[in-house]
């Protein structure tokens, strides 16, 4: 006995039984409506419509089939991959060769053999390989590319070959012929609007075929490739996950006009369905639905192409429930969700919180966004018992005359209370003395946007330092120390920044730098009051370097005076004139998307506010209508409290 490699698999003209003449549900067409040939350049079979409306399924070079082999009840090869090579001289035939030389079938004389093929090849993982339980999937959600195109059927179809059984007495020499057939049914819907339709065409969103008495799709299942598929609506399959519906969507426009029929194609599982159990729903772009329940019993056979023709009246499309949204409560707290309830149908639902950047009032107009302005600094107090020697002020009418008289002639708004200037005094509250590595106290970050009300959105910011006249009878309430000797103030790294809400980075408007006896317009100006004299020495102002193991800052400014002065003393650090950047056009505000086009309408939506305030909240449901998009807007005023 010799073994020969089975070197050639030939596919003859298949799908010969694929016709439109099944049951009264379809319109008969004479002749063979589905042709099988070798053409095209894709790597998968293609499905095209001929000039006569019949479907042509073509092999293309590189197509892969999977083949199982059995001999005397045992496997001789599971799911081997063979690659198609169409015949140029005879396009209805195609040879196959093994992709992997180590996985190739051989002919065994005197031995019974069986071969079972399917297309397209699928790598099987996570389960045992078996010709009787080969996995497959017919999805319930299918997508067609525009009108009249059956190309998508190749993505979802399953072709199985008639089993090839070879008796032990067969003396053939290795050539085996497979005849393939489509395991599923093709349903073609031919649609046209009636002549009295008031609009030129009706765009469809989806087509839904529903059966109450069986599965129309099998998202997960297995098929017995050893059982031939014949004129029987029942496939040799085990359903692991079934679906009573097939939903066809479109990735291009699908418009039904009045002049000519357009075709939509669904691939469905064969089966028998009782009279009145199958329903067809056509959903227009405005979500209105045209529904038909078929009164007759329907038997869908494998390897068949069914057609159903409809002349559609616009009046047959029933509108769906209009979108509605409701806010059960109009008050909430920061950090607690505000709930919106929704009913009806919308293609898209947006939530506008009313906050800047998400305000419906700016949905169709550009927003000029003001820059947020903030300021901060760090400080140290050292020596003495004067606990609040520093004040922070701003002016919009200061003329820039850097003298005490010029400063005091201006109007200054005291904003000290916005900063946390309460801290301990080194040398008084503790035994620790100030050194170059003592961490300063962060006074906090303050919103200073309202300060920029001067010409060209400008202002001056200044630090007012005050030293009390010495009083020996003063007693410090914190420590019981007698006398009110002056307290030094160390100013670390004061800055002013601008930042647009739409941007992650900020602009440095001012950053503290100061070098004695060096002129620089970016430096602050230090002005001493008239009561300072030579007795204060270096105390009015000194500059230090703050240094730690990981950070160095060389511009620490210290304000002070002689200890126990006999008169009050004042000095001032005045920042350069600062301007707020111009408002920026950041375009239209954007909503929070509650529902995108392909999402289901949720029953509710929750939103959490982070800041108290009064907000104009809007919920917008947008649907496509036959005359264009339509937006339903529900608005309400919501009060958000801090607690």
The class by helix and strand makeup works out as mainly beta
The total domain count is: 3
Number of helices: 2
Taken from the alpha-carbon principal axes, the silhouette is elongated
Q: Indicate the CATH class of the largest domain.
A: Mainly Beta
Estimate the strand proportion: over 45%
How far apart the termini lie comes to 92 Å
Descriptive overview:
The chain is mostly beta strands and 643 residues long. The protein folds into three domains: 314 residues, Immunoglobulin-like (Sandwich), CATH 2.60.40; 99 residues, Immunoglobulin-like, CATH 2.60.40.10; 208 residues, no CATH class. Helices cover 2% and strands 46% of the residues. It has two helices and 52 strands. Strands 2, 6, 7, 8, 10, 13, 14, 15 and 16 form a nine-stranded mixed sheet that branches. Strands 34, 37, 38, 39, 41, 42, 44 and 45 form an eight-stranded mixed sheet that branches. Strand 4 and strand 5 form a beta hairpin. The longest helix is centred in the middle third of the chain and has 6 residues. The protein is elongated and about 125 Å long. The N terminus is likely disordered.
Strand and helix layout:
Layout: E1 3-5, E2 8-11, E3 34-38, E4 46-49, E5 55-59, E6 64-71, E7 74-86, E8 94-98, E9 106-108, E10 113-119, E11 134-138, E12 141-144, H1 153-156, E13 159-161, E14 164-166, E15 175-178, E16 180-182, E17 185-193, E18 201-211, E19 217-223, E20 237-243, E21 245-250, E22 255-257, E23 262-268, E24 271-273, E25 278-284, E26 289-294, E27 298-300, E28 304-312, E29 324-326, E30 331-333, E31 337-343, E32 348-352, E33 368-369, E34 372-382, E35 390-395, H2 404-409, E36 413-414, E37 425-426, E38 441-442, E39 446-447, E40 458-467, E41 488-499, E42 507-511, E43 525-528, E44 541-547, E45 552-559, E46 569-574, E47 578-579, E48 584-585, E49 592-595, E50 604-608, E51 613-625, E52 628-641
Parallel strand pairs: 2-15, 3-5, 12-21, 17-28, 30-52, 34-37
Antiparallel strand pairs: 1-9, 2-8, 4-5, 6-7, 6-10, 7-8, 10-13, 10-14, 11-19, 13-16, 17-23, 18-21, 18-22, 18-25, 19-20, 24-27, 25-26, 29-31, 31-50, 32-49, 32-51, 33-48, 34-38, 34-39, 34-41, 35-36, 35-40, 40-46, 40-47, 41-42, 41-45, 43-46, 44-45, 51-52
């Amino acid at each position: 006995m010799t073994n020969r490699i089975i070197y050639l698999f030939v596919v003859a003209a298949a799908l010969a039984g694929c016709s439109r003449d099944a049951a009264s549900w379809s319109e008969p067409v004479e002749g063979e409506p589905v042709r099988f040939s070798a053409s095209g350049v894709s790597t998968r079979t293609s499905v095209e419509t001929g000039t006569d409306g019949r479907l042509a399924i073509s092999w293309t070079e590189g197509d892969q089939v999977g083949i199982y082999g059995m001999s005397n009840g045992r496997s001789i090869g599971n799911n081997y991959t063979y690659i198609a090579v169409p015949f140029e001289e005879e396009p209805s035939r195609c040879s196959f060769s093994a992709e992997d030389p180590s996985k190739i079938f051989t002919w065994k004389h005197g031995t019974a053999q069986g071969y079972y093929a399917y297309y397209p090849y699928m790598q099987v993982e996570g389960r045992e390989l078996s010709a009787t339980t080969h996995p497959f999937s017919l999805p319930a959600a299918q997508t067609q590319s525009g009108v009249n195109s059956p190309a998508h059927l190749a993505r979802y179809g399953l072709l199985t070959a008639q089993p090839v059984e070879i008796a032990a007495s067969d003396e053939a020499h290795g050539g085996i012929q497979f005849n393939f057939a489509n395991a599923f049914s093709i349903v073609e819907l031919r649609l046209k609007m009636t002549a009295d339709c008031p609009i030129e065409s009706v765009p469809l969103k989806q087509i839904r075929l529903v059966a109450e008495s069986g599965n129309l799709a099998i998202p997960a299942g297995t098929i017995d490739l050893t059982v031939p598929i014949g004129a029987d609506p029942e496939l040799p399959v085990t359903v692991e996950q079934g679906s009573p519906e097939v939903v066809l969507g479109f990735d291009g426009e699908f418009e039904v006009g009045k002049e000519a029929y357009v075709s939509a194609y669904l691939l469905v599982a064969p089966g028998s369905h009782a009279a009145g159990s199958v329903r067809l729903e056509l959903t227009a772009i405005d979500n209105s639905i045209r529904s038909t329940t078929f009164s007759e019993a329907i038997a869908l056979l494998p390897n068949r192409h069914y057609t159903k023709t409809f002349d559609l009246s616009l009046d047959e499309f029933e509108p769906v429930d209009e979108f509605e949204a409701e806010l059960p409560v109009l008050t909430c707290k920061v950090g607690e969700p505000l709930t919106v309830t929704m009913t009806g149908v919308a293609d898209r639902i947006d939530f506008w919180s009313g906050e800047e950047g998400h305000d419906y009032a700016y949905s169709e107009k550009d927003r000029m966004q003001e820059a947020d302005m903030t300021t901060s600094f760090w400080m140290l107090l050292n020596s003495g018992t004067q606990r609040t020697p520093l004040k922070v002020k701003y002016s919009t009418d200061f003329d820039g005359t850097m003298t005490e008289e010029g400063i005091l002639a201006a109007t200054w708004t005291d904003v000290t209370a916005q900063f946390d200037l309460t801290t301990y005094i080194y040398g008084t509250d503790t035994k620790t003395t100030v050194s170059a590595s003592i961490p300063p106290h962060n006074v906090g970050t303050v919103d200073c946007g309202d300060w920029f009300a001067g010409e060209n959105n400008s202002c001056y910011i200044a630090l007012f330092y005050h030293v009390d006249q010495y009083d020996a009878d003063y007693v410090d309430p914190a420590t019981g120390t007698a006398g009110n000797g002056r307290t030094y103030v160390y100013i670390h790294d004061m800055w002013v920044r601008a930042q647009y809400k739409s941007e992650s980075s900020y602009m440095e408007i001012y950053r503290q730098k100061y070098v004695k006896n060096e002129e620089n317009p970016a430096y602050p100006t230090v002005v001493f009051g008239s009561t300072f004299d030579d007795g204060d020495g270096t105390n009015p102002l000194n500059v230090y370097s703050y240094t730690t193991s990981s950070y160095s800052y060389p511009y620490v400014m210290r304000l002070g005076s002689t200890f126990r002065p006999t008169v009050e003393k004042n000095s001032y650090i005045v920042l350069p004139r600062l301007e707020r950047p111009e408002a920026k056009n950041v375009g239209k505000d954007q909503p929070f998307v509650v529902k995108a086009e392909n999402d289901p309408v949720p029953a509710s939506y929750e939103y959490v506010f982070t800041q108290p305030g009064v907000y104009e909240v809007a919920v917008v449901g947008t649907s496509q209508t036959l005359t264009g998009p339509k937006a339903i807007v529900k608005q309400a005023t919501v009060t958000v409290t801090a607690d």
